[in-house]
Amino acid sequence: MARKQKQPAVVAELGRPETPAETAARKANDSRLYRQRKTVNNLVFSLLVSLGLVLVMVLVVPRGTGGFEDRSVDVAELAEQYAPTAGRALLTPDVPEGWKARQAEVRGSDGVTYWQINYTTADEQYAAVVQAFTADGSPVNETWIAEQLERRDATGAEGLGGLEWTVYDHSDRNPDETNVLFGMQGVSGENTLLVYGTDAPGTLRALAAEVAAQAEALPRAAADPTDPTPTEETP
Q1: Each residue of 32-77: pLDDT tens digit?
Q2: pLDDT digits over 103-160, tens only?
Q3: Rounded distance, CA 215 to CA 157, Å?
Q4: Percentages helix, strand, coil for the chain, rounded to the nearest 5?
Q5: What is d(CA 91, CA 186) in angstroms, rounded to the nearest whole number?
Q6: Distance, CA of 23 to CA of 3 (rounded, Å)
Q7: Residue 185 forms beta bridges with which residues?
Q8: For residue 78, what are the contacts with CB-CB under 8 A and spacing of at least 6?
Q9: Which residues have a Cβ under 8 Å from the Cβ of 76 and sit 6 or more positions away?
């Protein structure tokens, strides 16, 4: 007895059986959709795995407990370390409580060696003290001084702490655009002194008076430094 051939199923959308070509097209489309879904699923899975790895790294990598707000250097200790390089005693100003010395080092540029201390004041403002000098004891050039004071114009002069200071009062400027809202420049022996910053003029004048008193009490420079030359300032 002959085996009956199975009749093609009627496709609801067509209302009739599929032709061989339609069957092949349907299977090809189903295969394409399957591959697309698999690609999307793989992409989502990979993204979730990546996010998970990032989270694990954030959780396990050790991080410091303090940042810049906690940074403070020992000015007196650094001044003692740098003194042989500078060939002279270096300033270590007494500053008000709440001030933090963020940086203190000897630098060099344009034939000038200088000891610079950068502070954050109690009012969260910036203040700097600079003690500059040359190898042969000649005066520090005016161009270098102008560069340090952001080429601000002098606005006056006054005596303070036994020294004559040139004053640079630009406190009307935007503090976000300058480090020299107020500055003072004086000379003590072979040392050119700069005091400047963004704090109130009265605060910076008090710092200049302290610097002047200490500068006048410093022993005079030694003959020639024997330690390595100071680090050249990066432009």
Answers
A1: 777 777 676 777 776 776 776 666 554 544 444 445 467 899 999 9
A2: 999 999 999 999 999 999 999 999 999 999 999 999 999 999 999 999 999 999 999 9
A3: 19
A4: 35, 25, 40
A5: 14
A6: 24
A7: 166, 194
A8: 104, 105
A9: 92
